[in-house]
Write a structure and sequence with these properties.
The protein is of the alpha+beta class. Helix content is 26%, strand content 27%.
Amino acid sequence: MKIFNKREFVEFVRGNEYLYIDNDRDDSFENDMNVVNEVFDGNGIYSLMFGSRGEVEFVKVNNFVEDIIEWNSVSNDENEFRCINEGVDDYLDLNWEEELGCSYFIIVEVK
């Protein structure tokens, strides 16, 4: 996974055809930065959580290890929508169920 600062993260998401930051405002770099700044709570792992109807939430992940253990504990037989996007190097993309996909990013601000 690539380590982004906040600005690089927003630029990366805006330049990716599959990712977006839904901020319910005008589609602009400044508004996307405002969303990230409102959520950013120090260096760590953050996620864009996508729902099946196009809704998205940007959140700080409190315990990444627990998320991975939970995702890994469900078999493909139990949940046909569970998958990992293997063609991605800059972030981790996990599909949890039909209505939830999460893209994980490392965001670090150097002072």
